[in-house]
Each structure stands twice: as C-alpha cells, then as structure tokens.
Amino acid sequence: MRIITYQAKEVIDILLKEGSYKVTDSKMMKTYNSFKWRNDDFNPFKEAYDYIINRMKKLIDNIDLDDDIIAPIWGWYKYKSINKLNKDNPDLYRIELEIDEKKVLLSDFYIYEDIAVGGLSYIFEGDDDMVEKYLHAEDEVVFKFYDKMLNLDKAEYIQATFWKLKIENVKSIKKVSDLKTYIYKKKK
Hints:
Layout: E1 2-7, H1 9-18, E2 20-21, H2 30-33, H3 44-59, E3 73-78, H4 82-88, E4 93-98, E5 105-108, H5 109-123, H6 128-135, H7 139-146, E6 158-162, E7 165-166, E8 170-175, E9 182-185
Antiparallel strand pairs: 1-4, 2-7, 3-6, 4-8, 5-6, 8-9
Helix pairs in contact: 3-5
C-alpha cells in the first residue's frame, strides 16, 4: 500500500541513522499539544488518539508495536489534492512509503478531525450530558460511535496510521519546498 507522510528534519535524521522512527514521547505530537481546551481534564485529541490506537491494536498486525510507542505515525493513503497537502506542509519532508496493508489502519480524515478538534461536545452541539454519557460508557459503545470514521465510502482524504516508519519501506524522501531535490531514493 502506498502511503505519503510528512515529517520534520529531526525525524528524517533519526530514520536515516537508526533505520526506523517511532513516537515515544508526547512532545513529538504537535497537534496533540497545540490547543488549549475549556476543561484542562478533557483533551479531545487524547480521546481521538486513544480511539485510533485501540482500533490499531484490534484491527491490524501489531508486529511493529514496541512497548515504548505511545502513538502511531500518521500519513495519507488517499487525498483529493497532493498539491494542497504539500502547500500545508512546506517546511517538512514528504516521505513516500510502501507498507503492507495489514500494518495500516485507514480512516476518514474529516470525521477524525471533527472529533479531534471539536471533541464529543462539538459533535453533540455542546450537550455536556451527552458527552459525559459517552466518556463513561463502555468502550465498545464509544467505539461504535467513532467507527463512523472507518467507513471510507465517501472519504476524499483517507489518513493512514502505522506504528513505525522503517527505512526499508521508504521509496523516496523529498523536501516539500523543493520537491525536485531527493534526499533519499531507494536503490533498485
């Protein structure tokens, strides 16, 4: 399965030096840490990340899941416009990968983003009682609600999550601001 991921120079350096990269520290998770919420105890990114992590553990091959991994690597499987993705990530490196589909969870980006950015209170239009119901429900009840993001029939942007970025899966690494410059090209 062909995946595109956008990563910082530090990630590229680790990948080239160590042969793989994995998320082992929440400081590496930019969007997870960039918002302030009205209730400090409720971070909808944590909720959405936890959902993705749980579903990955249940639905994909977890051979690459090490004990120190706290979150997956995020990439793109389907996108309406690669130019938009490139424009949104000018300071990063675009890594093209080929990963076994059994090691990847696909989900609808827009549904995920609605939940992650707005949280359940956004989905339920500020109904805090409904939010509390879902926060304290059995996991499978919450997952049934969230699983809408796994329906990919109408998705224009499909995100792909996987546990490790491995050098053997890399087809190319290109700086987004200069897509003609190859940093790494896999030898045939």
